[in-house]
Structure formats: C-alpha cells, structure tokens
Amino acid sequence: MPEGRRVFPDLTVEENLRTGAFLRRDKVQVAADLEAVFQRFPRLRERRTQFAKTMSGGEQQMLAIGRALMAKPRLLLLDEPSMGLAPVIVEEIAVIIEEISKQGVAVILVEQNAELALELADHAYVLETGDLVLEGKARDLHENDHVRRAYLGA
Q1: How many CA atoms lie within 13 A of 61 on its CB side?
Q2: CATH class of the domain at 1-111
Q3: Which residues sit opposite 134 in a β-bridge?
Q4: Could you please report the per-residue DSSP string of 29-46?
Q5: 137 - beta bridge partners?
C-alpha cells in the first residue's frame, strides 16, 4: 500500500476495492472478501457508491488498506499508514494492522511515528538519513536510550 493512499479519486469505494482483486478469477471468493472488507471497515460499506475523492483522509486510508487486502496478500507492505491522520483514526488503523497480522498476513510497516511502529512491530529497524543504525526486537528498541531521546521524546 503506497504512501499517501493513492486511491482512484474518480472511482467509487466499491470500484476501488475491486481493483485490488483485478488479477483474481475466483468471483465467489472475491465477493466474500469484499464483504469481509465491509465488515472490517463499516464506513466503507456506508460509502460504497461514493467517489473516493470525496472521502476524508482516514476513510481513504481505510479504502487503501481494504484495496490491498482484496489481493489476498501473504505479505502486506504499508508505507506511512498514519501520515496526515487524526490521532483517533491512527489508533483505529493500528488496531486494524494488528488484526491483519494476527490473521497470518506478514506486515512490513514503514512508519515515521516511532511510537506506533514500535507498538505494532515484533522486530524493528531504525534508519537515520538512509543508514541502518539500530535493529532488534521492537520492545528492546522501545527501551533503548538513543531511540527514546531521538524518536520518542523521552
């Protein structure tokens, strides 16, 4: 899922979601997966026929995640899913990412919100100006003095 959501603005919510399944031929399962996305994101169901460009940033982020899930990925790469979102929506997205991971989808999260990233991750890498400076278990990095001072404001 690319940074900045990149939904198709002139397509409806449902059309955007269906683009995530464009390579799939299993129409019955695609319909079931569409229903599963609507269950995970009730707001998307409410806005099923609404054009993506008219949605809030948080709704567009949910749409982008839903579209990615329609591809039935085994690995989901999320680039800055919290970017530009209100804190309450960030919390909602975090819960969704956690649920996706618990369902057996491997998640690679690229995120500048260090607190969020370390909360969601099992393993983490810290990059500074493109160089890998630290890596390890997320809970260990959360307690690392350098990480706490530089990224967590502690």
Answers
A1: 22
A2: alpha beta
A3: 126
A4: HHHHHHHHHHHH-HHHHH
A5: 123
| pTM of the full structure | 0.84
List pLDDT tens digits, range 44-62: 999 999 999 999 988 999 9
Q: Can you read off the two tokens belonging to residue 120?
A: 């969601």
Q: What is the DSSP string of 95-122?
A: HHHHHHHHTT-EEEEE-S-HHHHHHH-S
pLDDT attached to residue 4: 63
Amino acid of residue 41: F
Domain ranges of the chain: 1-111, 113-154
User: Which of 42, 71, 45, 57 is CA-nearest to residue 9?
Assistant: 57
Give pLDDT, residue 17. 98
Q: Which residues of the chain have pLDDT under 70?
A: 2-4
C-beta of residue 141 within 8 angstroms of C-beta of residue 151: no
How far is Cα 142 from Cα 77, in angstroms, rounded to an integer? 22
Q: Residue holding tokens 């493109």?
A: 130
**Beta-strand pair 123-128/131-137:** antiparallel
Is residue 20 within 8 Å of 67, Cβ to Cβ? yes
Backbone angles phi, psi at 132, to 5 degrees: -75, 120
